[in-house]
Design goal:
This protein is of the alpha/beta class and 453 residues long. 53% of the residues lie in helices and 14% in strands. The protein has 14 helices and 11 strands. The strands form 3 sheets. The protein has a 5-stranded parallel beta sheet, sandwiched between helices. α2 (50-76) packs antiparallel against α3 (81-122). The chain is elongated, with a radius of gyration of 25 Å. 36% of the residues are buried.
């Protein structure tokens, strides 16, 4: 199976401007909403006197902000196509993770401030007031359960804990946040002094119901409808290297998916042990009207089970997602440098075949046998009169980093004039971005996207 070479026209200037503005407009809109939430507290607060009222006021503010932030985090991960395509899945995931840390902080502050403030008002100890609040206030058991679920999710999402969990285990545990948000919503409606009536109550219902509706459509309904329409199945599982296979999917009306080289799908293989997980996998060849190719490295768990699948297994695909495409280019006339490391070659392989001009590819691997698609890449380079540089070894072996600024400058003439597409392990990607910046490449012309969330 061979994919055709495709080239796409650059987007119109007005669309380019809108795409560039969206990553700035979205945080601005979230901040404007937070100011609106603070206005609710300000409207209902006539005076603040005494330590108990200051603490209670702080508790109300942090509670309102936490209640606002929770559905916003849902929307960031609702897989809304325009956001996934124009902002980028990895940037949305980073915002979601950052917002999650703020949410845990706000919830913790809310609980401490309210409990302390109420204890001062009632002239009780904090411990006694805690028992009073939890067991005697309406809906507080739900609020307590929501708080514990949020804190537990925050704990497993911390970097140290996340590294010890498989993607599947983290994913399933993370689902508890949906229950936490629902319980928290019920608690807010009953106990929220600023949400009794008027615009606050209407806004809260709209925000929560709207968020769950958007989530249900893009995460459940739309994938189901697309599955019924496209009927994807495994056509071939092809070994590429030790522990690496390519999965070829066939189906109906694949051209209607409108996927671009460099994008990825979340694939759900309808086979025993795999049907309840949807993991992200990149296209490793340009999309074809009759098939899609994904390349999977055995990293344990899900990926090893995928490599053992046989033709005929049905697949449900969510996507396409990702902004790691030709559309990310700032200046289409500039030369392009593609840098890949390890299995990061998968989306880069598709871009190398389709980006206009004569792109230069730098592919780093520890050993020669770790190079994927070598024959394909050499053939594409020959057909397009493009350049490929193979960089073998690692920093662990001593000497200069193969992707260091001096080495890249020597390999790629006029490096600072290039637009760079970069994909590889997170630590290597961060280091390569620093080296490229040191070599004079502006940050806005360095494009990279992580596919591990």
């Amino acid at each position: 199976m061979t994919a055709p070479t495709t080239h796409r026209r650059a987007p119109a200037p007005d669309r380019e401007l809108a795409r560039a503005a969206l990553p700035w407009l979205l945080p601005a809109a979230v901040a404007a909403g937070a100011l609106g939430v603070l206005a609710l507290w300000w409207r209902d607060t006539y005076a603040v006197t005494g330590a108990d009222q200051w603490l209670t006021g702080a508790g109300r503010i942090t509670g309102l902000l936490a209640g606002y932030l929770a559905p916003v985090l849902l929307l960031l991960m609702a897989r809304i196509p325009v956001l996934e395509r124009e902002v980028g899945a990895d940037r949305l995931a980073r915002w979601h993770a950052l917002g999650g840390r703020y949410l845990v902080f706000l919830i913790t502050s809310h609980v401490l401030a309210v409990t302390w403030g109420y204890a001062l008002t009632a002239h009780r100890t904090v411990v006694a007031e805690t028992g009073q609040l939890v067991f005697h206030y309406p809906e507080m058991l739900k609020g307590t359960a929501a708080t514990l679920l949020f804190l537990g999710t925050g704990a497993i999402s911390a970097r140290a804990a996340r590294r010890r969990l498989s993607y599947e285990a983290w994913y399933y545990l993370h689902l508890a946040t949906y229950l936490a948000i629902a319980l928290g919503f019920s608690h807010q409606l009953v106990n929220g002094a600023d949400l009794v009536e008027g615009p606050g109550l209407l806004g809260w219902w709209t925000l929560y119901l709207g968020s769950f509706a958007v989530l249900g459509w893009f995460r459940l309904a739309l994938p189901f409808l697309r599955d019924r329409r496209h009927r994807l199945r495994i056509a071939e599982v092809r070994p590429e290297a030790d522990g690496v296979v390519s999965i070829f999917l066939t189906g109906r009306r694949l051209d209607e998916l409108r996927c671009l080289p460099g994008q990825f799908f979340r694939l759900q293989f309808l086979a025993p042990g795999l049907r309840w997980a949807a993991n992200p996998y990149s296209l490793s060849a340009p999309p074809h009207p009759r098939f899609l190719r994904f390349t999977v490295k055995d990293l344990g768990g899900h990926s090893s089970a995928v490599a053992a699948l046989r033709p005929g297994v049905r697949v449900r695909a969510e996507g396409p997602y990702g902004a790691f495409t030709e559309r990310a280019r700032v200046a289409p006339h500039r030369p392009v440098l593609l840098i890949a490391a390890g299995v990061g070659i998968t989306p880069v392989r598709a871009l190398f075949e389709t980006l206009p001009g004569r792109p230069t590819l730098v592919y780093r691997a520890r050993r020669e046998e770790d190079l994927l698609f070598r024959q394909e890449l050499e053939q594409v380079a020959k057909q397009r009169r493009a350049k490929v540089h193979w960089l073998l070894g690692s920093r662990d072996q001593g000497g200069e980093d193969p992707l260091g600024a001096r080495r890249l400058t020597a390999l790629v003439p006029r490096l600072r004039e290039h637009e760079v597409f970069l994909c590889g392990p997170a630590e290597l990607t961060e280091a390569a971005v620093r080296e490229l910046r040191a070599a004079g490449v502006p940050g806005r012309r360095i494009h990279h996207e992580s596919f591990v969330f």
